[in-house]
Design a protein that fits this description.
The complex is a heterodimer of chains A (115) and B (111). By secondary structure, chain A is an all-beta fold. Chain A is built from no helices and 11 strands. In chain A, the strands form 2 sheets. In chain A, strands 2, 4, 5, 6, 9, 10 and 11 form a 7-stranded mixed β-sheet that branches. In chain A, a hairpin with a 6-residue loop joins β7 and β8. Chain A is globular, with a radius of gyration of 13 Å. The termini of chain A are far apart. Chain B has 111 residues and is mainly beta. Chain B is built from no helices and 11 strands. In chain B, the strands form 2 sheets. In chain B, strands 2, 4, 5, 9, 10 and 11 form a 6-stranded mixed β-sheet that branches. A 5-stranded antiparallel β-sheet of chain B has the order 1-3-8-7-6, with no helix packed on it. Chain B starts with a strand and ends with a strand. The model of chain B has no long low-confidence stretch (mean pLDDT 92). Classes of the chains: A mainly beta (115), B mainly beta (111). At the A-B interface, β4, β5 and β10 of A face β5 and β10 of B.
């Protein structure tokens, strides 16, 4: 069964460093998302992406964040200068369309630890 | 702004018992989702509910939707230990289908 994959599974970085989190969505999916989950809290929407551009972003997704689909398979989230509060699990998700029955499929997540 | 609330936050059940998790959302939403999350793992889709009165069942889990009350329920029948996990509801937040998640319910089924 097709699945969303993410790398790395765990990333440790120093405050102020740049990190890139990578995702490979399901191959025929057209809509891509990033969410984050701070330890013990609920899952929060960051950004949605379609047709090579951001379609919606949350307040969390400030100028330090960017997303890119550099080729036909990868979808990346970049944090330019990490802060302690960026420590969280980051989930990538994809869906085929945004139609009635479409479900977003989530990847296994990348745990980001900022020291 | 769409907000989603779940209760209870924590639920300790004995095996064999029934219980219900409640999910309220604040504004109109086209779809309501239920996900399961095991510790340290990703989110597994359980149900998508579209219309008022929709009911879906999978094994010991049954989800329903009342769009007029803006309420969805996840009913657990005769709980077993394998159902121990955190359950999230999420409402469709608009045209891009972003998901707005509830706070989650940590379900612990005790033998």
């Amino acid at each position: 069964e097709p699945e969303v994959t993410q790398t790395p599974s765990h990333q440790v970085t120093q405050m102020g460093q740049e990190v890139i989190l990578r995702c490979v969505p399901i191959s025929n999916h057209l809509y891509f998302y990033w969410y984050r989950q701070i330890l013990g809290q609920k899952v929060e929407f960051l950004v949605s992406f379609y047709n090579n551009e951001i379609s919606e972003k949350s307040e969390i997704f400030d100028d330090q964040f960017s997303v890119e689909r550099p080729d036909g398979s990868n979808f990346t989230l970049k944090i330019r200068s990490t802060k302690l509060e960026d420590s969280a699990m980051y989930f990538c998700a994809s869906s085929e369309t945004v139609g009635a029955m479409d479900t977003q499929y989530f990847g296994p997540g990348t745990r980001l630890t900022v020291l | 702004e769409l907000k989603v609330e779940q209760n209870p936050l924590f639920l300790s059940m004995q095996e064999g018992k029934n219980y219900t998790i409640y999910c309220n959302y604040s504004t109109t939403s086209d779809r309501l989702y239920w996900y399961r999350q095991d510790p340290g793992k990703s989110l597994e889709s359980l149900f998508v509910l579209l219309s008022n009165g929709a009911v879906k069942q999978e094994g010991r889990l049954m989800a329903s939707l009342d769009t007029k009350a803006r309420l969805s329920t996840l009913h657990i029948t005769a709980a077993v230990h394998d159902l121990s996990a955190t359950y999230f509801c999420a409402a469709d937040g608009g045209a891009t289908n972003k998901l707005i998640f509830g706070t989650g319910t940590l379900l612990a089924v005790q033998p």
